[in-house]
Amino acid sequence: MTRYAIAGVVTAVVGIGAVFLLTGPGRLAIQLAILLAYPLNLAVHFSLQRYFVFADRDVYTLAVGKQLRRYLVVAIAQYGCIAAATALLVHVAGLGDRPAYLIAIAAAPVILFITLRVGVFH
């Protein structure tokens, strides 16, 4: 769990930093910023999960290609949930786009860890 937390902090700093740079100085809309920052965030996250968090595994059941395909399915689903939740919080709760984005991503780590542990890196 410690390695997962460290990887989560690094990924969060990269992802949130990229979105905030794109929405702040870059002056992009939050939905476009999330979309553009997501590939960078995914590359960092997958690498940290495979080579740091779950690195203690001597052998994986799935080859890296299969892990990557499963990971991308999870990532696409997560992107959809985060983008939709951000838009919903802005529209329904009247929040600003950045606070809505931060709330939307707050629930993701627990759900993602369980999904990765059970369905991807086993």
The profile of the biggest β sheet is: none
Distance between the termini: 15 Å
How many H/I helical runs?
5
Low-confidence stretches: none
Q: Could you state the order of secondary-structure elements as H and E?
A: HHHHH
- Average pLDDT metric: 90
Descriptive account of the structure:
- The protein is mainly alpha-helical.
- The chain has helices at 2-23, 30-53, 64-93, 97-106, 108-119.
- Helix 3 (64-93) crosses helix 4 (97-106).
- The longest helix has 30 residues, at 64-93.
- The mean pLDDT is 90.
List keywords for this structure.
122 residues; mainly alpha; 5 helices; 80% helix; 0% strand
Topology:
Layout: H1 2-23, H2 30-53, H3 64-93, H4 97-106, H5 108-119
